[in-house]
Amino acid sequence: MTDRKQEILAAAVAIADELGLDAVSMRSVAERVGVTPMALYPHIGSKSALLDAMLEHLAGELLPAVAAGDSWREQLYGLAYAAREMSRRHPWAGILIFARPSVAGDAVRVTDVVYQGLLEAGVPEPEVPRLERLISTFVVGYALSETAGRFGTRDPRGTRGQLPDVPLPGHARLQRWLEEKRDWDEEFAADLRDLELIIEAKAQPPGGDDH
Amino acid sequence: MTDRKQEILAAAVAIADELGLDAVSMRSVAERVGVTPMALYPHIGSKSALLDAMLEHLAGELLPAVAAGDSWREQLYGLAYAAREMSRRHPWAGILIFARPSVAGDAVRVTDVVYQGLLEAGVPEPEVPRLERLISTFVVGYALSETAGRFGTRDPRGTRGQLPDVPLPGHARLQRWLEEKRDWDEEFAADLRDLELIIEAKAQPPGGDDH
DNA sequence: TCAGTCATGTATACAGTGTAGATTCTATAC
DNA sequence: GTATAGAATCTACACTGTATACATGACTGA
Questions:
Q1: Domain spans, chain B
Q2: pLDDT in tens, B138-159
Q3: Which of A188, B171, B208, B210 has the fewest CB atoms found within 10 Å of its own CB?
Q4: Protein CA A106 to sugar C1' C24 (Å)
Q5: Which residues of B touch A146 (CB under 8 A)?
Q6: Cβ of B26 < 7 Å from strand D?
Q7: Any idea which nucleotide's C1' is nearest the CA of B41?
Q8: Would you give the DSSP letter of residue B162?
Q9: pTM score, two decimals?
Q10: Is the CB of A202 under 7 A from strand D?
Q11: pLDDT above 80: residue B50
């Protein structure tokens, strides 16, 4: 990766962080770099390729978080929390991950860390890839829901639009809990603990190192 | 909702189904309706509002699926499968759900059905909203991953980009399973069964109707 | 039958997007 | 000092959403 390409990438990431992903245009990035829009093309190819590069940059940011822990629990929890923090640093991460899937490179290394963690937990080999997809789908989905506002606006209270006139027995019974202010850190932690239940249920004695 | 608005909405949905969400422009929709782009505005307000209406339309499609079952298992499984099928019918559903979160109306009714199912399963009231978010986040995330191609391109085999030169011990050990062709129907079913483990772990005796 | 009113559709225009194609500049090699 | 290569630029095109101004048609009251 040339210096110029790195510079362009950094400018694009900065704009997305500050003004949102929609503000990332060839013209805005070029202006930030101090150059004409067309000057970007020899370096990054196209806007689509630029977005792919931004995505790969995210995986690169995530990698340093995976070396720390030793137990599979520390590894997987550490990675999940790091992913969520990254999504808060770069609120455009989630949409990009879901919308532009085919990346390679560092993203594969992150996946590999999850594979290793699940194997070490004692999950049978044939189940590991599926569980990795289950977990990563949830973690990315949660992070995206949080930054995009899908949570927090779905309960009747605080919803902008009109409520249907039909009765909502579930909401009615849960009214007192729906009124409570949510702690999203705590909810994420609780969700991860629930996912750990699945891992433990799948784990076989040999290799499982319960504390 | 006036006839004209319904007609516009139907045209937008049809275009999104056939050509993808990016092909939905004021001009393409107007042409389909047989009218000038500006003629849409009195009816739908803006393109953003049109996308919101498309989203609400999805929730409306989902509702008929929720009345069938009687047990909470049938209800929740039925809803999950219906959501996934809807996402295959309208591949643009997932991105829209994640990217444009604040809807009301029919979407709230779908949420309410999940609340009722979890309550009937015996999940303690304070845990129900969180579990609903966990489940819906996964289901929508899975459906989106599938239609957007996030699955199926993440394993080294078949990835377009270059693999990093570092070793991938997890992938190496799982090589034989990663080479297998995946059955995404079966994987979704297995994931739901795993999520059911969480529900059952949370369920308290009174109200739990195990078969 | 005529005039007035109101809703609906149209036409034009503007600022923005990604990017193809042709041109100009700059810096190094001989 | 001239030739060559690489990088940046300029112009232009087809697209996007939508603000503004205008036309058209149907329906009402006299």
A1: 1-45, 57-202
A2: 999 999 999 998 986 434 444 4
A3: B210
A4: 40
A5: none
A6: yes
A7: D18
A8: P
A9: 0.91
A10: no
A11: yes
Greatest alpha-carbon pair distance for chain B in Å reads: 61
* Separation in Å: D10 C1' and A32 CA: 19
Domain spanning A1-45 has what CATH number?
1.10.10.60
Rounded to whole angstroms, the distance from the CA of residue A35 to the C1' of nucleotide D10 is 13
Q: How far is it, in rounded angstroms, from Cα B101 to Cα A153?
A: 7
* Strand D contacted by B109 CB (< 7 A): no
Quote the minimal CA–CA distance from B111 to chain A in Å.
8
Entry field: residues in chain B: 211
Determine whether the interchain pair B150/A114 forms a contact, defined as Cβ–Cβ distance below 8 Å: no
| Domain A58-202, second-level architecture | Orthogonal Bundle (1.10)
Give dist(CA A137, CA B140) in Å, integer: 9
Tokens of residue A15, six digits: 């704009």
Confidence of residue B68 (pLDDT cuts 50, 70, 90): low
The two domains B1-45 and B57-202 share their CATH topology (first three levels equal)? no
If you search the block for the tokens 């377009």, which residue do you land on?
A: B160
Digit-coded pLDDT (tens) for A130-175: 999 999 999 999 999 999 989 864 344 444 445 567 789 999 999 9
Please give the residue of chain A at the shortest CA–CA distance from B201. A197
Contact yes or no for A177 and B101 at CB 8 A: no
Cβ-contact A129, B177 below 8 angstroms: yes
CA distance B111 to B116: 9
E strand or H helix at B164, and its extent?
none
pLDDT digits (tens, 9 = 90+) for A55-68: 999 989 998 887 76
Residue given tokens 């996946």 in the structure block: A111
Contact B168, B111 (CB under 8 A): no
> What's the ipTM?
0.90
B41 touches strand D (CB under 7 A): yes
Residues of A within 8 A of B197 (CB-CB) are 197-198, 201
Q: Where does B2-127 have alpha helices with state H? A: 3-19, 26-33, 41-44, 47-62, 72-89, 93-99, 106-121
